[in-house]
Amino acid sequence: MVLVWDRPVTDEQRPSRRRLPAGDIARVSVFAALIAVLGLPGTLNVFGDVVPITLQTLGVMLAGAILGTWRSALAVAVLLVLVAAGLPLLAGGRGGLGVFAGPSAGFLIGWLPGAALTGWIVERGGRAPGTMRMLAACLAGGVGVVYLCGIPVQALVTGLSLGKTALLSATFLPGDLIKAVLATVVARGTQRAYPDAIPAVHRERLRAGGR
Amino acid sequence: MKGLTGAYVPGGSPLHRLPAGVKLAGLAVCCTALLLLRPPAALAVAAVVVAALYAVSGVGVTAAWAQVRPVRWFALALFGVQLVVADLSGAVSSTLRVVLAIALAGLVTLTTRTADLMAFLERCLAPARFAGLDPYRLSLLLSLTLRSVPVVAELATRVREAQRARGVERSPRAFAVPLVVGALRHADALGEALAARGLDD
């Protein structure tokens, strides 16, 4: 129910209100911050600083599983915009436009469709997405799509062939698979403790509340 | 909060005074040009130009090195691999290309205030109005995220302490689940507070 006390709701105000209500702004910004904070504990360097293994991709998968398709993509976009503006929000205090010119640029850009696909698959699961569906969502979005975007860009930047780049990237695969499993466990735990963390449940509650 | 100020180095050089939009456009042009330059000699000239730009900006060697430092091992590995699969000139040019692109992007970061870049981005976001998105809400989203980083970091510290008190330091689940639930609770309270202040009216 919408109560308007002192001014009529004009037609110009309606679309923007429908598209980005206060609750979405809050969730998106806090999750963008959460992905940044997950980069703080430090990076596990396997290959020097090439493409650091961080918990940040865990945050990307969690954002997808909890916020749903477009909110999670928006959270990643907000984070990347702030990084581009020069803030050291990526793991190891990286930031600035340099990261978008470097070899791991594609992996970062891949977070966008990756989070969205994770969210999309979880949303198809309705009010009670199962563990297997969550795992599939994290693997497809958080690992599959991210690699699909990252490897060609790395090949382009380094001038190595696609096959060689893919082989180099395979060293990160075990870590990313563990992170996908961890994201599934954490998302399940969160949704059990806080049912509103399931995208479909959240949407229904908003609809019922009229907000 | 420390570390959220960006890498900006104050100064009065011509590069500092250029508008953010011009610098970003210049960066895009330069990065494309770097991809098209093939002979090592041309790239060596480009390297001299980049070094000259750094000298003009007067940001200092430490700040300059901090921009390139994160890719040092990568550059070394790339050089080695290229030396094996291609030849010396190929190795030199592809390594230089990556390092120079990163150095140029770093130069824009070093000479542009975060606030100026954000203002430029907000101007770029203005056409979002036609897609039904409110530029004011988008800029609120950006500043709210900046504000949320210290809040979530503080939450993470508290969860770590609780984890230690419970004796489950080694369980990543005992860290991440309370952190995510706490972040969501904070987000939903924040959303209600924004709505209560009339953001949705």
From TrEMBL, chain B:
It is found in: Membrane. InterPro entries: ABC/ECF_trnsptr_transmembrane. It comes from the Bacteria. The lineage of its organism: Bacteria, Bacillati, Actinomycetota, Actinomycetes, Streptosporangiales. This is Cobalt ABC transporter permease. Keywords: Membrane, Transmembrane, Transmembrane helix. The chain crosses the membrane at residues 20-37, 43-66, 73-92, 98-121. The keyword Secreted does not apply. Its main location: membrane. It is a multi-pass membrane protein. It holds the Pfam family CbiQ.
